[in-house]
Amino acid sequence: MAIPPTIPTSFVPKQPVNTAARRPKSGSNLFLLISLGIAGLSVLTAGATFGYKLYLENAHAAKAAELTAAEQAINMDTVEDFIRLRNRLVSAQTLLNQHVLVSQFFDVLESRTLETVRFSSLTLQVADDRSAEITMDGVARSFNALAAQSEALAAERHIKRAIFSGISVNTNGTVSFKLSAEIDPRLILASGAPAPVPQEEGTTPNVLPVSAPPAAATTSPVVAPATTTTPRMP
């Protein structure tokens, strides 16, 4: 029997199938944009770093050329003259600072000398390291006066290790003696502060003899104790 034409003979659809393209998710697009931004920023940073490196190299080369030109323009004779002048000034300042002045020492000695004691001679020895020692000859009116003079010198912090020796009684009752002591370098140096100076082996201290007329202090004398005391012996 024949199949009527109204009955379909196939179940395959005759209309074309509509295949629409799938849209990507929005999260993938955002990640892609961020990646592209980071990549672009890295490229820009690398370019800026390379450009700054070239700038620094060019600036360094220019400064080096300027320095070379300035060095070539300097007169070496003038530089040597300045160096010699500086060395002379430094040496002069050192000599002035280490110059020995005895005026301050005489002021201290005058203030510490009693009216009953007088000194007839003084020798000042200054070593290369500016340590100083004095040796003096003197006469005291009595043993009490000599003991009081010993106490007066012991109270002076710039005069150290004062030793009285060679004590003898004269025919007129006065007492002769010798005095040796160490002097604080700050008392005799122009700078007021000692600076060590290297001392070579075999050198001897500079001996500066100073002749001093008999002198007595103008300040009030120190009253000697009523009882007789024995002066310090070496």
If strands are numbered along the chain, what order do they take across the biggest sheet? 3-4-2-1-5
Task: Quote the CATH topology of the domain at 103-197 and 204-210.
Answer: Alpha-Beta Plaits
Query: By helix and strand content, what is the structural category?
Result: alpha+beta
Amino-to-carboxy terminus distance: 165 Å
**Main sheet record:** 5 strands, antiparallel
The CATH level-2 architecture of the domain at 103-197 and 204-210 is identified as: 2-Layer Sandwich
Question: Uncertain runs with pLDDT below 50, 5 residues or more?
Answer: 193-234
Overall residue-averaged pLDDT value: 74
Features:
19% strand, 5 strands, Alpha-Beta Plaits, 234 residues, elongated, alpha+beta, 4 helices, single chain
Topology at a glance:
Elements lengths: L25 H48 L2 H22 L5 H10 L4 E10 L5 E9 L2 H12 L4 E11 L5 E9 L22 E5 L24
Antiparallel strand pairs: 1-2, 1-5, 2-4, 3-4
Description:
It contains four helices and five strands. The chain starts with 25 loop residues before the first helix and ends in a 24-residue tail after the last strand. It is elongated, with a radius of gyration of 51 Å. Strand 3 (159-169) and strand 4 (175-183) form a beta hairpin. A five-stranded antiparallel β-sheet has the order 3-4-2-1-5. The protein has a domain at 103-197 and 204-210: Alpha-Beta Plaits (2-Layer Sandwich). It has helices at 26-73, 76-97, 103-112, 143-154, and strands at 117-126, 132-140, 159-169, 175-183, 206-210. With 234 residues, it is an alpha+beta fold. Mean pLDDT is 74; it is low at 193-234.
